[in-house]
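Case study 2.
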Amino acid sequence: MSDPTIKTKLDRPVIFRTCCKDVYEATISSGSVWLRSSRYYRQIEDIARQDRSEGVNGTSALFPLRFAPESAQAITMEGPGSVGQEIVLHYLMSMHGTSITEATRKEFGGYTLGIRCIADLAADIVYQVSKQVTVKGYRYGQVAYQRTALTMSYDPHGSAIELSGSPSVHVKSINTDVLRKDPVEPFIDQDEWRIAIFTNKYLNDAPDEPLKINVDPNHFYDYIKP
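Prediction:
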């Protein structure tokens, strides 16, 4: 058998997906893809993949933050906990670049397939998902590991803290982005890329269940099989 080679399209990012043997073989042979909700990743029992901040953009008050807007109750926050906002409903497919550590790659299952073109794959995923649930939009790209800023607003939508008053003032994330995550290990070691599909609801109203689709298997190529 010849050595595996990179078969990514020219001018496209060289990215991969690592999984267990069964998932690898199903993806290569039939284009099987299981999309997952952010809630699933927060609760998953596989510690290597569990991310309690998935789907939430937030920040920490590592020095005192005192909010005292006019006509509202003052409050001071400080500590390592996260203050932020949950991103609107979406499903995810996670991939990685070349910077993943070997230890993390093995924890993720050790079988690594290549992605020929993330743009083509994203378009196919949108089409297949739209057969099962209404798609409101999608994004794809590299994940930035950084916290977001906070803002004060009279708009209560998505607020993390309400400062009672007349009118009430709300503290919330100034910008939520599905391509941004808290900078925590081991995720910062994997150079993550993702495709996010925004839908009008969870399939069968079940956020813990996967949304199963089949795309063209030619989006993928063999790379590492232990």
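Residues 111 and 125 are 22 Å apart (CA to CA).
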